[in-house]
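Reviewers asked in the last cycle whether our approach scales beyond single polypeptides. To address this, we selected a multi-component target totalling 442 residues and predicted its structure end to end. The input consisted of the following lines:
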Amino acid sequence: MLDILKELIYSSGAVSLTAGNLVMWLVAFVLLYLAIKKQYEPLLLLPISFGILIVNLPLTFLMEPEHGLIWFFYHYGIEFDIIPPLIFLGLGAMIDFGPLIANPKTLLLGAGAQAGLYVTFFAAVLFGFDLQEAGSIAIIGGADGPTTIFLTSKLAPHLLGATAVSAYAYMALVPIIQPPMMTLLTTEHERKIVMTKLRPVSRLQKICFPVVTGMTIMLVVPSAAPLISMLMLGNLFKESGVVARLTNAASNELMNIVTIFLGLSIGATMTASTFLNPKVLFIFFLGLFAFVISTAAGLIMAKFMNLFLKDKINPLIGAAGVSAVPMAARCVHKVGSEANRRNYLLMYAMGPNVAGVIGTVVAAAILLKNLG
Amino acid sequence: MPELIAPIAGSVWKILVAVGDKVELDDEMIILEALKMETPIFCDDSGTIIEIKVKEGDAVNEGDILAVID
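The resulting structure, written as structure tokens, was:
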């Protein structure tokens, strides 16, 4: 009788708990709180935090290779590169490239704001990260979750939890991080600039855009193909106007389904042994640095363009060159309307914002090609 | 006759005024919603509202007339 009791106690997870597990529970509970109470990116943070919680219950073997339930989600969804491109399919079916087509100059802002990535890459190398790790950390500056996951899972899978969580965290924190940079780097006068009306974009242009841009990018940087092809296919669904069912499936049902597997898998990579590591704090710090530099680079790029433009652009829209869609564009709109209540920058900011998505994917593809 | 024009595309979230109301420059008249963000639209003139051309929930395009003021 006593033996059976002993057996039961020793086979329970409780005796195998480590202090690290308890710390990870705390991390999970904090993230759950932020998701539920503060509603910071709850669609992702909620499954992520639950994933963290359950992999830190000993002897459940949920992430055990070839056996664990969540390992299968992770292996086939993320290691096989299936989920991030599917998210991009849905994203493509939701975003409107119209403001970018109407004002192609804003493509430069989306490219300029990637500067933070390159600066951070070298900073991370200086801090002692290897080149693959540095590339994965730098991409956080683009504030694009799926792209960060895509790149990290190829270059430095052991950092996946940290880079993915910081990319999503900085996306959620755009309204806190960006405004001080915006007021610091622009004058009151510049923020008040009302932009000239965008020209109308025809349906034909909107249909041609995903095809032509997609082909061009894939011919130049073939390693961007998984993400760009799905993004442009989703957008073609939407702009063609003839496959509403596919557009809805891609942007609603499929997107929601893969989000569940994505969140759980990312959370499940964060076991105490991989996550409780001084490197992880550095990753959050360097990721923030990358995001701040990218914001600044976008703003400075916009001010630089104004030196040559007859119709001045409002330099605030440069900050939307990071790819957090549409948080960064909303943030620009809000700061612009605080300077001048008749300033409606939302659509102007969407140009650099969607260009930023493309820019981050291209940057990731270049890093992948050179480091992978 | 002055008109209130939609500065961005979106849907009409709230109408804060009614026909017959007297409005002043910079009064908040209508709140549009675009990209899950509320954008208040302010009055450009002073006068009396003689017509409101939209109702809550309507989708509007940039440049659409929202209201007419006398």
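The mean pLDDT of chain A is 94. We regard this as preliminary and will revisit it once experimental data from Aim 1 are available.
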